[in-house]
């Protein structure tokens, strides 16, 4: 493959990944807000919500639709674009490096186990971009729940406050748990997607054109795999990023377990699985369609 083709492939992954990531984020964001609020609620001595439905009802009643469910959307939309482009780009780069090391042509399909390793590499790489974005997102999503504190007025307000109180590294609070979640979660994300497509393709050959419903189902399975695989890590990460007092992993683990047991680490999983099906399906479908248009 020529250098020009490599450059075109890389640029395609970045641009197409960015657009598809933004599409997925718009769909999933209100569900994500409920999930983060449930996780934050579980970290308190007296939880604010008794169930997912209670959280939705109170959020709508007290804050309305946009301020309640879509507050803080610009940050994760930008972040989702960066995240998705980084995920698809680094996933492709990892596969290319494996092919080069084995003396294969670039774009040669590698074994499924090696694709899982590429997904893990992609998640670790992307976690460094994702942590500060999710920190800002989570702060805004629970901001209205914090009594006696001045609400954030903008993304810039959150960033300035964090920088003032904790310095530059404060933006990467929760990096370890984000990395753990992304390493395993992204391997499951790409793994479930590739495995489902492999089942649809069967022995039809490498030139098989996937049908729309097959891409949507594979995308939905990818989202389920990602969120179900390491959800407790996501819970701990969100508590660290939203709590004023809980700063370390062991402290958060102990507090949640003593207060709520194992189930406390899975607070918000139901709403997360509901939101990930349409969001991940739309994201992968748009990714594949945009790749065709690019070519």
TrEMBL record:
Which biological process, per GO, is one annotated for this protein? mitochondrial L-ornithine transmembrane transport
The GO molecular function terms of this record are: L-ornithine transmembrane transporter activity
Q: What membrane topology term does the record carry? A: Multi-pass membrane protein
Q: TM spans, by residue? A: none
Name the Pfam families for this protein.
Mito_carr
Alphabetical UniProt keywords = Membrane, Mitochondrion, Mitochondrion inner membrane, Repeat, Transmembrane, Transmembrane helix, Transport
Tell me where in or outside the cell this protein is found: Mitochondrion inner membrane
Query: By its UniProt entry, which InterPro entries does this protein fall under?
Result: MCP, MCP_dom_sf, MCP_transmembrane, Mitochondrial_Carrier
- Solcar repeat ranges, renumbered to this chain: 8-97, 110-199, 210-293
GO cellular component term, pick one: mitochondrial inner membrane
Q: Which PROSITE patterns match?
A: SOLCAR
Q: Which PANTHER family match?
A: MITOCHONDRIAL BASIC AMINO ACIDS TRANSPORTER-RELATED, MITOCHONDRIAL ORNITHINE TRANSPORTER 1
Q: Report the family membership.
A: Belongs to the mitochondrial carrier (TC 2.A.29) family.
Under what name is this protein listed?
Mitochondrial ornithine transporter 1
State the organism named in the record.
Ogataea parapolymorpha (strain ATCC 26012 / BCRC 20466 / JCM 22074 / NRRL Y-7560 / DL-1) (Yeast)
């Amino acid at each position: 493959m020529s250098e020009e083709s490599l450059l075109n492939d890389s640029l395609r992954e970045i641009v197409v990944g960015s657009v598809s990531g933004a599409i997925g984020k718009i769909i999933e964001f209100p569900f994500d807000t409920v999930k983060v609020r449930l996780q934050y609620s579980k970290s308190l001595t007296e939880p604010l919500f008794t169930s997912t439905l209670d959280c939705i009802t109170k959020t709508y009643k007290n804050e309305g639709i946009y301020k309640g469910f879509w507050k803080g959307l610009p940050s994760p939309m930008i972040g989702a674009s960066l995240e998705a482009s980084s995920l698809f780009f680094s996933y492709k780069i990892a596969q290319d490096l494996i092919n080069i090391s084995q003396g294969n042509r670039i774009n040669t399909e590698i074994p499924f186990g090696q694709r899982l390793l590429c997904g893990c590499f992609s998640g670790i790489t992307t976690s460094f971009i994702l942590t500060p974005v999710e920190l800002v997102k989570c702060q805004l999503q629970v901001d209205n729940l914090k009594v006696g504190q001045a609400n954030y007025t903008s993304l810039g307000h959150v960033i300035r406050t964090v920088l003032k109180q904790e310095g530059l590294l404060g933006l990467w609070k929760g990096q370890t748990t984000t990395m753990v979640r992304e390493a395993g979660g992204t391997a499951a994300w790409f793994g479930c997607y590739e495995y489902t497509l492999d089942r649809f393709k069967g022995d039809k050959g490498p030139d098989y054109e996937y049908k729309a419903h097959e891409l949507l189902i594979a995308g939905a399975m990818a989202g389920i795999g990602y969120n179900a695989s390491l959800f407790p890590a996501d819970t701990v990460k969100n508590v660290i990023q939203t709590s004023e007092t809980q700063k370390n992993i062991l402290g958060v683990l102990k507090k949640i377990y003593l207060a709520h047991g194992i189930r406390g680490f899975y607070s918000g999983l139901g709403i997360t699985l509901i939101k990930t099906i349409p969001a991940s399906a739309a994201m992968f479908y748009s990714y594949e369609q945009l790749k065709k248009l690019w070519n």
